[in-house]
Amino acid sequence: MKRPAADLITVAVPKGRLLQESSALFEKAVGVSPRALLEHTRKLAADAPEAGLRFISIRAGDVASYVEHGAAAVGVAGLDVLREEPRELYEPLDLGIGRCAVIVARPKGAAALPKGVAPRVATKYVSLASAHFAKKSLPAEIIELHGSIEVAPSLGLADVIVDITETGETLRANGLVIEEEVLSVSARLIVNRVALKLHAERLRRLIAALRAAASAGPA
Ligand SMILES: Nc1ncnc2c1ncn2[C@@H]1O[C@H](COP(=O)(O)OP(=O)(O)OP(=O)(O)O)[C@@H](O)[C@H]1O
Ligand SMILES: O=P(O)(O)OC[C@H]1O[C@H](OP(=O)(O)OP(=O)(O)O)[C@H](O)[C@@H]1O
């Protein structure tokens, strides 16, 4: 059924690494590719009335804000982002894409820090890292960075890092080895709580279609 624009459900699709796989899942589930709709244009919103959806193109780290505040009913976000800053959201589905892990890594061959010395930890996951070291009753000095975290130990800025790894290539190339895993990550479907009540049946069908698409594996 083709719906009028005012009746479309808004879906926040992350730019960046999750865009391609998210798009493939939506294409499989509802027959429309948000990537195809949003590429080659500066427009950040595109309607797919045949699917009853409006897709908006949002930075990965901002998707949860849009959905929590109801600017989008549905979105796709990495578990790292969701656990770093917990929000009032439903997380009904593991989409099985964007698999990676948040890890602690240290320079290969580095001597252990003397007992009682707080490690300096470079990370953009300030909250996850603090909680991780607190759980081990290890005091830690957290140094917040926003990218290129892996270079921090070699420059003497930090003793260890807490960051994402997928293939391990960036760690290896920067002389780091994994010490432990903090969180196993994949992307989740997130849903606004009020929208789930307002559009219960339509969202139930969308979630079921995405679940089927996700369990069918990569296209
Ligand atoms: N190397 C990786 N391999 C697999 N998934 C990753 C990798 N790096 C990040 N991810 C996942 O993809 C999500 C989006 O990452 P991406 O690099 O596209 O955005 P970002 O730069 O972290 O966020 P923003 O665009 O808001 O600054 C991350 O939150 C994580 O869940
Ligand atoms: O284990 P790998 O497969 O090498 O992937 C890990 C890298 O991917 C991400 O960085 P990204 O490329 O998103 O750049 P960033 O430094 O801007 O986060 C992450 O922060 C690591 O640096």
Automatic annotation (TrEMBL):
Record keywords, A-Z: Amino-acid biosynthesis, ATP-binding, Cytoplasm, Glycosyltransferase, Histidine biosynthesis, Nucleotide-binding, Transferase
Class of this enzyme: transferase
Catalytic activity reported: 1-(5-phospho-beta-D-ribosyl)-ATP + diphosphate = 5-phospho-alpha-D-ribose 1-diphosphate + ATP
Pfam families: HisG (PF01634)
E.C. number: 2.4.2.17
Pathway assignment: Amino-acid biosynthesis; L-histidine biosynthesis; L-histidine from 5-phospho-alpha-D-ribose 1-diphosphate: step 1/9
InterPro entries from the UniProt entry: ATP_PRibTrfase_cat, ATP_PRibTrfase_CS, ATP_PRibTrfase_HisG, ATP_PRibTrfase_HisG_short
Domain ATP phosphoribosyltransferase catalytic: start-end pairs: 59-211
Compartmental location: Cytoplasm
GO cellular component, one term: cytoplasm
Principal subcellular localization: cytoplasm
GO biological process: L-histidine biosynthetic process
GO molecular function, one term: ATP phosphoribosyltransferase activity
PROSITE patterns (alphabetical): ATP_P_PHORIBOSYLTR
UniProt keyword annotation of Amino-acid biosynthesis present: yes
PANTHER family referenced in this protein's UniProt entry, alphabetically: ATP PHOSPHORIBOSYLTRANSFERASE, ATP PHOSPHORIBOSYLTRANSFERASE ATP-PRTASE
Domain notes: Lacks the C-terminal regulatory region which is replaced by HisZ.
Similarity annotation: Belongs to the ATP phosphoribosyltransferase family. Short subfamily.
The protein's role, per its UniProt record: Catalyzes the condensation of ATP and 5-phosphoribose 1-diphosphate to form N'-(5'-phosphoribosyl)-ATP (PR-ATP). Has a crucial role in the pathway because the rate of histidine biosynthesis seems to be controlled primarily by regulation of HisG enzymatic activity.
Subunit structure: Heteromultimer composed of HisG and HisZ subunits.
Name recorded for this polypeptide: ATP phosphoribosyltransferase
Gene source species: Anaeromyxobacter diazotrophicus
Lineage: Bacteria, Pseudomonadati, Myxococcota, Myxococcia, Myxococcales
Gene label: hisG2
